[in-house]
């Protein structure tokens, strides 16, 4: 099954509604079929020997996973996409596609925690060295480049503290030194930032978040430009990574409404973030779309929107009270669930651990709480946060 090409001149919600699907290539059914497959039969021995047919085995793609990949390609402007079982699998696939024993990688210090664990364990065991750099480094990253630096990994904004990165400046420095640039673009989705348009080679998404959108799917996508696509595809084939067809289908279905959901997440989160800036008990609000945020100018220059996740720093002077105060805040919440991940319809809150940072400074005013603003009514979310702040003040 092949999809129709959706014109890039169309609006984002129109493209989301139609990307990765051509109903008339499958009897007119609106949604693509869910194909469960391991074995694929060949017509004859000659075609088996030459593998001269579109599908050869379940791990190499099915009409369902291809439909999702084609939709993501349309959104990213990429030459090819693979769907894998999780966001972390997407990160590791991208890294293993670009790195070999003896190589050096530069990874932003505000990186997704499991990515750091992968670098510090498996990559280290494979003889690959990682250096963590300040997310605000910009063009000065050129000073950290070595002859064996093969990968620069970015994440904008950064995990939990949302530092912005000057992606075009980093890309320019990396390309001058012959390094590949990857990005974890989960926060903004391709709707609000298209990394490949800014020179990034590989865009990574935990599609578990906004694309799937309902807290019930684990899936990741990795999208590459023309130069890197053959290497990414080959590495994926060698590793045998593949998303399950039901998860691919649910993610594709989630994509159809991602635009309207993301707009709601954005608007609610911004209203709440601005409201929190003036609240007693809140030292700082870490949201790049706020004018007060240090990286706001970069966000405004490069991004067309923001999503529903940001952090607050509680105003707690005595560090000995950080845990008690943050737990009081979290345990009082009624609408917010206490759970990892984000991008679903429900509001979530988690305490942030920043003890693994190497060069990026963690906030000193108090503990950091990450908030995922869901699709609930803003007044109810505000009231819940008020309860938490009041409990923290009394604890």
Protein described:
- With 395 residues, the chain is an alpha/beta fold.
- The protein has 2 domains: 243 residues, 3-Layer(aba) Sandwich (Aspartate Aminotransferase, domain 2); 137 residues, Aspartate Aminotransferase, domain 1.
- 36% of the residues lie in helices and 15% in strands.
- The chain has 12 helices and 12 strands.
- The strands form 2 sheets. Strands 1-7-6-5-4-2-3 form a 7-stranded mixed sheet, sandwiched between helices. Strands 8-9-12-11-10 form a 5-stranded mixed sheet, with helices on one face.
- The longest helix has 32 residues.
- The chain is globular and about 75 Å long.
- The N and C termini lie far apart (59 Å).
- The model has no long low-confidence stretch (mean pLDDT 95).
């Amino acid at each position: 099954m092949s999809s129709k090409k959706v014109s890039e001149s169309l609006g984002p919600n129109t493209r989301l509604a139609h990307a990765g699907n051509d109903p008339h290539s499958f009897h007119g059914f609106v949604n693509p079929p869910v194909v469960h497959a391991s074995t694929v039969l060949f017509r004859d021995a000659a075609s088996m020997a030459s593998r001269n047919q579109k599908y050869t085995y379940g791990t190499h793609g099915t009409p369902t996973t291809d439909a999702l990949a084609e939709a993501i390609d349309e959104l990213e402007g990429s030459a090819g996409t693979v769907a894998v079982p999780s966001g972390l699998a997407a990160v590791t696939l991208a890294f293993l596609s670009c790195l070999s024993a003896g190589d050096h990688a530069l990874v932003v210090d505000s990186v997704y925690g499991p990515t750091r664990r992968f670098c510090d364990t498996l990559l280290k065991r494979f003889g690959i060295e990682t250096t963590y750099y300040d997310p605000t480094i910009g063009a000065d990253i050129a000073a950290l480049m070595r002859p064996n630096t093969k990968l620069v990994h970015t994440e904008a904004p950064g995990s939990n503290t949302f530092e912005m990165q000057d992606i075009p400046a980093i890309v320019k420095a990396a390309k001058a030194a012959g390094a590949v640039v990857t990005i974890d673009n989960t926060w903004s989705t391709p709707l609000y930032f298209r990394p490949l348009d800014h020179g990034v080679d590989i865009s990574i998404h935990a599609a578990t978040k906004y694309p799937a959108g309902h807290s019930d799917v684990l899936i990741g996508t990795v999208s590459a430009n023309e130069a890197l696509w053959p290497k990414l595809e080959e590495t994926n084939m060698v590793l045998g990574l593949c998303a399950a067809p039901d998860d691919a289908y649910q993610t594709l279905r989630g994509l159809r409404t991602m635009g309207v959901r993301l707009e709601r997440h954005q608007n609610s989160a911004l209203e709440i973030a601005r409201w929190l800036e003036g609240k007693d008990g809140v030292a700082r609000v870490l949201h790049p779309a706020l004018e007060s945020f240090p990286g706001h100018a970069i966000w405004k220059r490069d991004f067309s929107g923001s999503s529903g996740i940001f952090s607050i720093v509680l105003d707690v002077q005595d560090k000995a009270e950080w845990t008690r105060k943050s737990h009081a805040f979290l345990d009082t919440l009624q609408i917010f669930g206490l759970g990892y991940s984000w991008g679903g319809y429900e509001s979530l809150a988690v305490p942030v651990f920043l003890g693994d940072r190497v060069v990026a400074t963690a906030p000193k005013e108090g503990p950091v709480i990450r908030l995922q603003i869901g699709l609930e009514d803003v007044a109810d979310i505000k009231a819940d946060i008020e309860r938490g702040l009041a409990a923290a003040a009394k604890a």
